[in-house]
Amino acid sequence: MFKAIVIDKESGSYEARIAELDDARLPEGDVLVDVGYSTLNYKDGLAITGKGPVVRSFPMVPGIDFAGTVEHSANPAYAVGDAVVLNGWGVGEQHWGGLAQKARVKGDWLIPLPPGFTPRQTMAVGTAGYTAMLCILALERHGITPAHGDVLVTGASGGVGSFAIALLTRRGYRVVASTGRPQEAEYLKQLGAVEVIDRASLSEPGRPLQKERWAAAIDSVGGHTLANVCASLRADGAVAACGLAQGMDLPATVAPFILRGVSLLGINSVTRPFAQRQQAWHALGETLDLKQLDTITHEIGLAEAIPAAGELLAGHVRGRLVVDVNR
Fold first, then answer.
1. pLDDT tens-digit map of 59-92
2. pTM of the entire structure?
3. Which residues sit opposite 240 in a β-bridge?
4. Domains and CATH numbers, the chain
């Protein structure tokens, strides 16, 4: 038996609760993992509260990432006792996820515990930090370097934003942070931001082409914010887009793309090939100051994740929430 958050929808009633389940109820997969830590991401918040169409089948165990130890394996890549990490692959949406004490998944979705990290540290980084690094690597493949100028980070107080600031700063970039929480300015500067701006300057409809301000950007917001970021990038700049906190729409024009050569780089963190996942975690190991994890993260227990989901969606959570599923 194991404990898990279970989301169910019966007779039109949507409910997330803590349940005790038998191992036999776990979905198919060739690796069974004793989960140590998971996290609470924006997508998990939508799933637990029912405020977004995230869950594809019921009942569902949320949690889009986890770290743990292999209990049983029919996959030649993993043996009993191996420490493993999972990010994405539809867990917590289509396949039972990590907000539970056990998970059965496809071994192809896992990677070995990255060198230099403990299981808890990988979840302190989690999908948010992993996604932030994918964004940075995409910008650098595009040719962006610190010499090109300022990099804007939107949604700066959230998980992806917090890690983007810390990682960009460690790689030598000058970072400008956009947030709707001015009380977090000192926190963002502590992570490395040299300037903090009010998100209101980006979140409303703006002109199709605006003053050139940033060499590049990492955007986890979408909507009008992403449109204004594109309109404000310097010539040949790029924005790595990885989120939709403001919405899925993009009320923009082609002007920045054809008049300034701006590039919009879409970041899919869910189904990256094994080599790209390892590359991102290797870059995280090289770049991240692990001491900053205490600044960025806060640990909660499994039962606390349910009320915390609403707080996360309301924008009341700073940085990352690590979930110890065994307390």
1. 999 999 999 999 999 999 999 999 999 999 999 9
2. 0.94
3. 218, 265
4. 2-113+289-324 (3.90.180.10), 127-266 (3.40.50.720)
